[in-house]
Amino acid sequence: MADTQIVVDKVLQKDVNKVFSTAVENAELIDIDEGLLLATTTGNLNIRATHDFTRQNGEEVIRQSTRSAVQTLFNSLWQLPVEQVEGTYVVTLPEIKMWLPREKPIPKKRAVTKWQEYAKSKGILNKKKSRMVWDEAAKEYKPRWGYKRANDGTQDWLIEVPANADPMEDQFAKRQTAKKERVAKNELQRLRNIARSQKRKVPGVGLTPTEQPSKDTLSKALVVARKSTASLGKFTEKLPKEKPSKFTGKKRKFEPSIGDLKNERERQLKILDVNAKKVPTINVTKATNRALRESEEQRSRERPSRKTPKKQKGKGASAGRKGGGNKKNRVKRNK
């Protein structure tokens, strides 16, 4: 029994020695940037200056320095405000201290849509719904929306006619038309949101259908119907006691070909100012460096070469040997 206790004590003592303390010595020499999760050690690791330098000893020193930097970073993170979200601890990081260059600009935040503005003003919160729901007809779970969705009313072969509806009206065609109108309205709202985020205007698409149109809506619809003919409503007959519509739209104004010279001069000067602003600016530094480089290259081409010309072989020495030589040979050739 005593031997077993001794073995257990040795194992426990060995495990205790492996546990490091959260306190770090010389923590003030470590720079911490919580925004980037960056820990930088400013102390110099002069390992080669020690007399007992070995590869194993150097790796151990680097490992200890890295461990101290990481422990200091975690100690600083736990001092920041912490909140628990869905069973997970979340730390709100502060602003970064070391600004790093980035290739592209920071993306801008998306502009809120009209529905988001309305929901924020009314305090409406988005409730997360599960995608799969139980379908009573098929007795299985199906997607809430999309292809093969649960409780799909469009697959019904029979539709009950409402009490206040026309019994001869086609309810299938009515439902299909209503769906097309909803899809078109959603698409128009999507385009409007994109235009609002990019600060542009959406072109007019006519009048959207409404359940209870107002007086102004009916007046606009009447004007649109009147101008939908080939003559743009020029020969369309007016209704009895019909008043002129106030929704006539904007008319284009054409300047006369011969008019005020002062206005014409101002208009032309304004056009010249706009075109002058579009002229690209000249980079003086770049142009100067380019001119200096070209002048230096031209000067180097015009400078005479310092290399000595090579001796021509086969003319001077060989010719002397052929024409010169011994005196006896010259005599023989003369004879």
TrEMBL record:
Localization per record: Nucleus
Sorted UniProt keywords: Nucleus, Ribosome biogenesis
Principal cellular location given in the protein's record: nucleus
GO biological-process terms attached to the record: endonucleolytic cleavage in ITS1 to separate SSU-rRNA from 5.8S rRNA and LSU-rRNA from tricistronic rRNA transcript (SSU-rRNA, 5.8S rRNA, LSU-rRNA); ribosomal large subunit biogenesis
Alphabetical list of Pfam families matching this protein: RRS1
Cellular component annotations (GO), alphabetically ordered: nucleolus; preribosome, large subunit precursor
Biased composition (Basic and acidic residues): 235-245, 261-270, 291-305
Compositionally biased residues, Basic residues: 324-335
Region of interest called Disordered, as start-end residue ranges on this chain: 235-335
Keyword Nucleus on entry: yes
Purpose of the protein: Involved in ribosomal large subunit assembly.
Database matches in PANTHER family: RIBOSOME BIOGENESIS REGULATORY PROTEIN, RIBOSOME BIOGENESIS REGULATORY PROTEIN HOMOLOG
Family designation: Belongs to the RRS1 family.
Protein name stated in the entry: Ribosome biogenesis regulatory protein
Originating species: Candidula unifasciata
